[in-house]
Design brief:
Layout lengths: L20 H11 L5 H27 L8 E5 L14 H11 L3 E5 L5 E4 L4 E5 L11 E4 L8 H7 L3 E3 L12 E3 L1
Parallel strand pairs: 1-2, 1-5, 5-6, 6-7
Antiparallel strand pairs: 3-4
Length: 179
Amino acid sequence: MFDFHPFYPGLGLGGHCIPVDPFYLSWKAKEYDFHTRFIELAGEINTAMPYHVVQAVGKALNRERKAMNGSKVLVLGVAYKKDVDDLRESPALTIIELLHKEGAEVSYNDPYFPFVGKGRHYDLQMKCTPVENLGQYDCVLIVTDHSTYDYPQIVREAQLVVDTRNTTKGIDSPKIVRC
């Protein structure tokens, strides 16, 4: 018998090695006149994913006749992957910064991070917001699919859900936008 673990595309890369190590390989390969176009293309796509997510949030809000500017957005999960307490290179941090730049009022919840301060590439200075009274937000954006979240309840209570991790699979609701 063999073991199988499926991998699905997400909203970018995070962690301490995968966002960085392939570029070291690419740099070293150039010393030998070898070009690693696939590595560089993958890097470009992964770097663009937070922008794609923010664009999807904007389109979803527009569908509800709301502008991004002034909308209240709750980001669920800032860790770079499910059920870990690691922010290194997390695309969620870029997404929060981009939402701020578009004028959104952004809050976040992550059971592993009561506070997000300043890092190498970000300076957010935000406190974790409880997952309650979800109807007050114009959009709930699922970024990290932590096991502790009750996704059916989130869909029931939220006005609009943008799901980047397919956590709402099997839930049929016009409130859900999957990207």
